[in-house]
Structure prediction request, 334 residues.
Amino acid sequence: MTMKQLVFVTGALTLALLAPTSVTAQSRNSSTPLAQDGRPDLSGVWDFRTVTPLERPEELADQEFLSEEEVAAYAAERVLASNADLNREARKLETTSRGQVNGTRESRDLALAYNDFWWDRGTEVVETRRTSLVIDPPNGRIPALTDAATARAADRVRINQRPTEGPEDRPLGERCITGFNSGPPMLPGAYNMNVQIFQTADHVVLLNEMVHNARIVLLDGSPHGKVPLWTGDSRGHWEGDTLVVETKNFLRETSFRNSSKNLHLTERLKRVSENTLLYTFTITDPTTWTQPWTVELPMRRSDLPMFEYACHEGNYGMDGTLTGARAIENDSSQ
Prediction:
């Protein structure tokens, strides 16, 4: 073998040995980072603040996306509209024909509970420029309620308006059991809109900053259990680069916008870039809505740590609520 042939063979062997390492390095440096098991790496802290509304405003009709020129003005308009210090008296009279949870007196009181300084709703629309987080139905609106759901909503309003009989009367967020934006499913709302994801080959943990709610999702193929849980019973699997989480067996009290125990939630999480996690969920509950509906919510990577959420710092407010209710009862009996 000549020196020229020896150099060629040596070079070829060197390239062959380095090729797998080079491919692996390229994969792990792509826009979709990989975990040690080769699956997309979803871990980290993700921020889902946005001023994009859940439902498309009626004045936008069939406009699915904002133009680049409309984005800044629309975001500024939404920030101004949500300012808790403006039009406070007028907002107390807001109502909705849908009977949804966010249209009740309790939620309006929550929206007006603090000065604007304490809220952290965000200042930007979602990067897709959609005019609503609801992407299906195509009109960007939540489907109509069934008759049974309308009756449940009316009953909830009745319960909220009478003296509180016990802690079970009050919403889970007020009782510091779950957060009002931590889900499942997760939706923007008020503050603490961060979720930290921990990932192994057979588990994923979704830790919400709101009320430090931690949901453990098994990826081992085991079936759903039969015991209802506060955040439902979650099982996950991979479909390509997308983590799909199926959740059912919710407790009655863990209603999502007045849903029933028949709620079936399908969540999808996909790392679409180094700094963006696309979160999509579909709600199926034929005893609450006339058809399934789907939400798409891009989340942004955050460099901030998760902060403690000390809900009510011992929940002394519940003692005041119950004490006040008993005092009303005593006055009415005299």
User: Anything to note?
Assistant: The longest strand covers residues 264-273. The chain has six helices and ten strands.
